[in-house]
What does this fold into?
Amino acid sequence: MITDKQIESAIAEHGSQAKAAAALGLNRRTVDRRVRGWVKRGYAPEYDLTRPVPDGFRLKGASTFYDEHGVKRMQWVKSQIDPERMAELQHAALEAMAARLPRVRPQPFRSVADADLATCYVLTDYHLGMLAWREESGDDWDVPIASDLLVRWFRSAIDNSPAAGVGILAQLGDFLHWDGLEAVTPTSRHVLDADTRFQKVVRVAIQAMRQIVQMMLDKHQTVHIINAEGNHDPASSIWLREMLAVIYEREPRVTVEQSPDPFYCYQHGDVALFFHHGHKVRPGQLDVTMAAKFSDVFGRTRHRFAHCGHLHHKQMRESALMLVEQHRTLAAKDAYASRGGWLSGRSASAITYHARYGEISRVTLPPEAVV
It folds into this structure.
């Protein structure tokens, strides 16, 4: 690989970026892109800026002290994180890690399923990793409790749902309670009640997700996985999508939604299913947003349903465009919710749609009903 130093030397020797690219056997745009990256990081020799800040950062400001003879004596360089470059580096790291993941081998389907049916298992705001104390908020919640309930709920919901040809795992965001080594919300940095170390939360999340997908493969001919971006776990939703896509890349019965846009869509015959966490667009505007974003699917279908979470309580709104449903969470309340008086019930639903008729049945299970 051609290094930055080699490109810099070639530009100095040949006098232009185009000539340097030709001498090095590189595309002109490759050299231009590298140079733009240097400038962003603070490399501009004509202004005595010759020491770029580290990759992943960008120049915030620089002050240079010159003596009376115009000789540079001291220089102060200030930097800040470059979000775009950090996202690029994160994606590259995910690709490198994914290359080492074990792949699931194709599994023959040995059951009988109705191809006209699709069952959508809606899970939202599960907040794996959250800590709640019964005496303070009404229910206990930690990683062992959450992981146990999650697997038991899916087992019960799958067992009690029709033998549909399609199974949709619609995880609508905030699956993890926090998104990194610090237990804070990513945007506002509010301190959260956290149960354990982040690595343990990640490990449990991966194990539970793979167990759920396997149960769905035993029930349904095909499985479609959606891991929506939430406001608590925007970065973790990325690695979860990419990881599952790699793990199941050799299993033709599994498809994984990998869109970086936080709005998602799945079509089943005359049925359009739309998904969004709810942190960007509220339920009252979600119908218009989805119809605009997925106009092709909207135009091909007769029955349209949008699903979101975020606010933890149930609400249904039917417009001329579609039925929008905001779902409850299975998770217990934390101290923040309890003290704020947000006291919604707890449940999750498996909704079955017919390819021609729309919704035909649903199984809704609160934690107490899960065996």
About this structure: The chain has a mean pLDDT of 91. The two ends are 57 Å apart (CA to CA). The first strand starts at residue 57 and ends at 66. The chain has two domains: 4-84, 111-369.
